[in-house]
Each structure stands twice: as C-alpha cells, then as structure tokens.
Amino acid sequence: MKKTSKTIGASLALGLAAALALGACGSDSGNDGGGTTEDKAATELKIGASPTPHGEILRFVKENLATEAGLKLDIVEFTDYVLPNTGLNEGSIDGNYFQHLPYLEAQMEEFNYDFYAFEGVHIEPLGVYSEKHTDLTAVPDGAMIGVSNDPANQARGLRLLEAAGVFTLAQTEGDPTIDDLADNPNNVKLTQIDPQLLPKSLPDFDYAVINGNFAIDAGLMPSSDALMLEDGQDNPYANMLVVRAGDKDSPGLVKLNELLHSPEVKQFIVDTWTDGSVIPAF
Question: Is residue 72 a contact partner of residue 100, using CB atoms and an 8 Å limit?
Fold first, then answer.
C-alpha cells in the first residue's frame, strides 16, 4: 500500500508539472519566448481625433499595427476644433490628432496650454483651381483670384500662389494677408470670401484657392483638377499627434507616433484618398 501511495503521488506531481508547462506555452500565444509585446499588458491610449481623415487613419493603426506594438487604442471622435485641446489639457485624453502647427501655436498662446507636437503625418492640401485657365504659367493681367477669409488658410493660399510665381509676398512678422504683396507683376486682384463659398464662386474668378475638403464636396478632384497643390513634405500645415509636454517621452505615445509614420500608414493614405484630398506629410 505504501508503494502504491508513493506511485500515485508521483503521478499527480508529474501531471501538475505537465499542466503548468502547457499553461505556460498557452500564455505565450505562439511566441518564441523573446519577451514580445504579448508577454506584457498593452499600453492603453485614449486619443482624440476628427472623424475624417484622422479617425480613419487611427483606426487603420488600431486594427493593423497597434496590437503587435503593444498598444490598445481608444479613439474618441470630436466634431469641433476646441474640445480636443480642452480634453488633452484636462487629462481626459492622452493625445489628439486633428490640428496643424499654426493652429496649435495660436491655441497654446491663447489658453496657455503646455503641449508638444510630434512631426506631421498628413496634409489636406489647398489647391489652385480655375474654370477659365489651364495653368499658372501665363496669369492674365488683372486676373481676379479668390482666397479664403480665414487668416490661417488665407496665408496658406497666398504662399501657394507665391510658390507658383504669381506674385511675391512682403516679409511680415506674422502670417501674410492680401495687403502684403511686395511685387505683383500681373496686377492680380485678390478677393477674400468664406472658404466654403469658394467652389461655388469659382466661375466668378480667374483662379481660386480652395481647401481640399470643400473642393471634394463640390465635385472637384484635387489630384487632377487643381492647377497646383500644396506639397506635403515638411509642410507646416501638416496635421500631427499632439500630447502634453510632460508626456512627450512616454513610450506608448512615442510608439504611436512611430506607427503613424510607418510605411503601412503612408501606403494606406495613398490608397485611400486617391483623389489627392489627403496626402502623406512624411
């Protein structure tokens, strides 16, 4: 009997050891034991974003890249441009992705926010459009050009027209306005109106500088209809991930920014917005 008892005890011990070994293998989920991200709890991040295209880009990251990188994303969509920064400042979100640097800097100055901006991810480019002309190489004398009455977008439009050689802007301390033309060889006349009305007013102008989203809404395709588009590379109006300054070195947020600048995200942007309304900024 004693011999039988010892045999049963040994068998139970071996069975328990085998079960533990199998449990360890199961928790590895097929990993090679090298300490991959699945061995650790995922870093949870709550990121505020505009629904399009920012939310769509973040969802691509969430569904295709985040898990392997050890991140769990909670995307909070905002339909205005105030609450994402308010929420970030108050701590209800860990970061936001909806704005470009000039807007961020104005918000930081006005509300004394202490934020940090990573590099730009994408840009929704302004374009120069015309129903009367096919290029910008021979702008007629006295040409009428419509530009946005929004200060930030007006400055962007003026710089785009300057890059096209239409005129030269004077050096200014802040953003240029329609009154800051230093050299205007074609005597163009600039008219500022609500940016949403520019597509409908296009027949009234020789040229108009129109935001990508408003161009799309009006049936224009930036990639083919614009005579000139903003370049995404190193563009100050690129949209980027913004976090509290104290969190700029947070491993999870740094990793999310890396994913937003990955080849996969760049290809996703190119493949999704074939009309050119959204282009990579890296």
Answer: no
DSSP state of 180: -
Neighbours of 115 (CB within 10 A): 22
- Distance of alpha carbon 266 from alpha carbon 255, whole angstroms: 16
The answer on 223 and 131 residing in a single domain is: yes
Residue 217 sits in which domain range?
127-229
If you average pLDDT over every residue of the chain, what do you get?
87
pLDDT digit string (tens) for 3-56?
A: 333 333 433 333 433 333 333 333 333 334 333 334 458 999 999 999 989 999
User: Cα–Cα distance between 269 and 282 in angstroms, integer?
Assistant: 11
- Identify whether residues 118 and 250 lie together within a single domain: yes
Q: What is the CATH number of the domain that holds 225?
A: 3.40.190.10
pLDDT number for residue 84: 97
Q: How far apart are CA 93 and CA 96, in angstroms?
A: 7
- Indicate the pTM of the whole model: 0.74
CB 277 within 8 A of CB 211: no
User: In this structure, is residue 29 part of a structural domain?
Assistant: no
